[in-house]
Amino acid sequence: MAMDRVIERQKMPAWKWGLVGAVLLIGCWFAYRMLIDASIRTYRVSIDQLVISEVEFGDFEDAVPIRGSVQPLNSVFLDAVNGGAVEEVFVEEGSFVEAGQPLLQLSNTNLRLSAAQNDTNITEQLNLLNNITDGFETTKLSTERQIIDTEYRLIVLERQKARHEQLVEDGLVSIEQYDAIVDELAYQSKVLANHQARQRLENRIRETRLVQIETQVEKLEENLLVSQSSFESLLVRAPIAGQLTSLPVEIGESKQAGQRLGQIDVIDQFKVVAQIDEFYVSRVFAGQTSSFTLAGAEYTTRLLKVYPEITEGTFEVDLVFDGLTPSDIRRGQSLQMELTLGNPVESLLLPIGGFVQDTGGNWVFVVDAQGSYAIRRDIRVGRRNNRYIEVIDGLQQGDRVITSSYRQMDDMERVQLAQ
Known about the structure:
The protein is α+β, with helices and mostly antiparallel strands. It contains four helices and 24 strands.
């Protein structure tokens, strides 16, 4: 009987151990990748639904698109200086008017009575001041007449004194008579001095008072003009020549003081009023130029004024035509323009897309070389125009970036691109 032979277990070759190890490593690597992928927030989307743009190097034209509205360069608003009821309308809205032409008549009984009373009071005060002035002149003439009489009396006394001196020596006139003439001469001299002193005082008082009266008369005359003009303001006249673009009034309608009555536009000069995003507020200055095309011709405008107030994320600017003005533009017409902010500069450029509104240009999704996915990456950008945004850091020339809207994936870290 044959004996059983112990079969020795053969050892696994080293190459098989290496194969098993490689399989295990690959499995672990796939497991690790699956865990990593599971921890990354991923958004899956068809590549056909996205816009992918390439970062390029080129000239950055520092310009911004703006939309403006054609408005008259100069407009004058008609406001009711004094309230009243519309009594008569002389012109129709849209008519061309001349400076000083009557537009409408208001009626105000209280204003009429008040103006009449003011006229009466001012006239009485003017008459009183005139009487005071006349009194000064009368006093002046009276004092001058007294001085003339006294001077004449002195001349007569001087003659009498000279004659009496000789008569006294001859014994023909008594000393008492001669002394009386001398005393009278001294008295009249003092009287003359008194009159002259009073005349100087009266002159000073009169000069001071006449200056005051003249000032009062000027003020009263101004008040009289204001009173008359307040009544005359009920007849509304055109302050300038132009087109009456607005006159929203009806006969019998009551208008309050300060209420808007209408508007007159200068029709031969225009400006463009545009709204610009507040992002550019620190880079927009008076004197910058913009261009637009109308009816196949290109025109240029110059920025005239920048209004500092920001309303709902925009600020307003006024532009005037620089050179040729289009002949067929109309008030209120819209123009699509491009405002130049600076000279072209070579920069790294990324096409503008919907992502700018979603990220503010702070980060983007960059597509990998194979085009299978896109990874979120922080970037730093600078200026922008209607076509490109300037890239300062975070991207390189040739990088491909998703530039369409990130609205559905703004909280994702990766985008899986399905073919």
